[in-house]
Amino acid sequence: MIVKGISGEETLSNVAITAYSRNFDTIKDVKYRIGIKEGENSKKFSLIHDGDFLEDDKTFYKIDAGSTLLMISNLRDQVSCFPW
């Protein structure tokens, strides 16, 4: 899958990140791997697929290989998404 990071902050940039997952991986597992790879705290961003926020305790079972996810920065108690 491809993860595109978008944010108004300096921490996330408008770049594409390749992330690998298995059907039984949770969203939290993949966010952790992305966080390690990008030097980000996995609690400070969310992933979106087809307009829906992905919940950390769910798996990637219904997300196809080659899908594109959006990675957005969580700003305090709000989530902000900025256009490309």
Number of domains in the coordinates?
Answer: 1
Count of DSSP strands: 6
Uncertain regions: pLDDT < 50 for 5+ in a row?
A: 6-11
Number of helices: 1
How would you characterize the largest beta sheet? 6 strands, mixed
* SSE class: alpha+beta
- Proportion of residues in β-strands: 25-35%
Task: For the structure shown, list the relevant keywords.
1 helix, 14% helix, 6 strands, globular, Ubiquitin-like (UB roll), 84 residues, alpha+beta, six-stranded mixed sheet
Describe the structure.
- With 84 residues, this protein is α+β, with helices and mostly antiparallel strands.
- The protein has one domain: Roll (Ubiquitin-like (UB roll)), CATH 3.10.20.90.
- The chain has 1 helix and 6 strands.
- Strand 3 and strand 4 (52-53) form a beta hairpin.
- The longest helix is centred in the middle third of the chain and has 12 residues, at 27-38.
- The protein starts with a strand and ends in a 5-residue tail after the last strand.
- Residues 6-11 have low confidence and may be disordered.
A few lines on this structure:
The chain has 84 residues and is of the alpha+beta class.
Tell me the layout of helices and strands.
Blueprint: E1 2-6, E2 15-18, H1 27-38, E3 45-49, E4 52-53, E5 68-75, E6 78-79
Parallel strand pairs: 1-5
Antiparallel strand pairs: 1-2, 3-4, 3-5, 5-6
Protein name: Ubiquitin-like domain-containing protein
GO molecular function, one term: ubiquitin protein ligase binding
